[in-house]
Amino acid sequence: IQASVQLLIRSLTPDGKAQYICGLFDPGGGFWRNGQLWKVALETRETSVFFALDEAELTPDRTGRVASNPYAAFHGVAVDGAGRVFLCDRQNGRVAVLDAAGKLLKSIPVTNPDAVAAHPKSRALYVVTRFGNYHAQGKLALLKFNDWQTDQQAAQTILLKSDIGKRRESARLAVVEAAGEVCVWVAYTTLPARVYRDSAAGLELHRDFLDTTTQRALDLRHMMVDQATGYAYLADSQGYLFRIRDWSKPAFELCLQAPGQRLAASSIAIDARERILYALGHYGKPVFRWRIEDEFFTPLPGDGGAGVTPGVTCAWVFTGLGQRGIAVAPGGGVATLGVVESDRKGWYTDYSGPLHYFHPDPSKRPWPGVRFDELASKYLNTGGVRFDRHGNLYVGVRDHQVNRV
């Protein structure tokens, strides 16, 4: 599916014979246009439009220009035990309640609804609202309505996270009842799962997986494997580095350089011969080298205060640290995709991810580098860079010719 197509959200009917889907749409229009909720028969895969907005009423930023605005008109959908459908209608700022035939029963005012879940036995309704912009000043919130039939505003609102940027991924929401307790699970790309217990007093935080475990890997971007041990290293867009060491019981372990002090990395490479980890922690920062150890990572001599490259700036993103990659040559040396300090003039307009190679020079920090302008000028975007064991360099490129393989 082309990158411009939106996320898919679905929910099953009570009898389990059909599912509702929304959020996925074709910017070109037609049967899969934006602003529609579809019903799919699971046995036959026959699909029909269950509920739709008038195409003429869609606002311009929710039609086809998803590169600049990743939000669809509809985002979340849920079904209760009676077969009523609850639809997150961002276009009209509401949760639309529909009967089993698709007739609108009620509109509950909610701004930017993103995910919805219905209480299994009562008329309580839970909604996650989400909005973010390119300056990451949005918010993620959890709302509870005590009775969807009568409530026009939420009885309780909990701020889950601020500083939300623009992302295509939607929030995740689920309600579970067990042993007489009702628990609400909520998660997002940059928010590990939280569990709220719902009681007569309202929603109370029961567990926050960010605080109670190291299993907090978010939006994984880059992965490398240490060939000597088979350990996998994974960097996320928030600057955290994790590794998996025990494949019989795989778990994300946070990489540390000292007790309580994490090793910052959002783009990584491993020198397999010397067992050295190269890490780019944040845009505008240099690449640092670390000796791979069993527990804590130590910087190479001379690398503690200065990296081996100039500062590298990532592409134009406000949804995390979007470095396009680094690679280490068999004999040392580093290749990066991004704008470095030597390109500071005009870097505001060059987000192509130009290729740089830095010659390994032990006497200098940073190492001298060469930029390959031809690659940057020929392709709009680059992504992914690797050396093979013979020293040949491979670079992934994107030319936006989506009809070619």
Account of the protein in words:
The protein contains two helices and 34 strands. With 405 residues, it is an all-beta fold. It has a four-stranded antiparallel β-sheet with strand order 1-2-3-4, with no helix packed on it. Strands 5-6-7-8 form a four-stranded antiparallel β-sheet, with no helix packed on it. The longest helix has 6 residues, at 373-378. It is elongated, with a radius of gyration of 24 Å. It starts with 8 loop residues before the first strand and ends in a 7-residue tail after the last strand. 34% of the residues are buried.
Strands ordered across the widest β-sheet: 1-2-3-4
| Measured distance between first and last alpha carbons | 13 Å
Low-confidence stretches: 1-8, 62-68
Tell me the radius of gyration. 24 Å
Shape: elongated
* Residue share in helix: under 10%
The tally of strands reads: 34
**Beta strand %:** 35-45%
Please tell me the overall pLDDT: 84
Structural class: mainly beta
How many helical stretches?
2
Major sheet = 4 strands, antiparallel
Overview features:
405 residues, mainly beta, elongated, disordered N terminus
How do the strands and helices of this protein lay out in sequence?
Blueprint: E1 9-12, E2 18-22, E3 36-41, E4 47-52, E5 74-79, E6 85-89, E7 94-98, E8 104-109, E9 113-118, E10 125-131, E11 138-145, E12 156-164, E13 172-178, E14 181-188, E15 191-199, E16 202-208, H1 209-212, E17 220-225, E18 232-236, E19 241-244, E20 253-254, E21 256-258, E22 261-262, E23 267-271, E24 276-280, E25 287-291, E26 298-299, E27 312-313, E28 326-328, E29 334-337, E30 339-340, E31 355-358, E32 369-372, H2 373-378, E33 381-387, E34 393-398
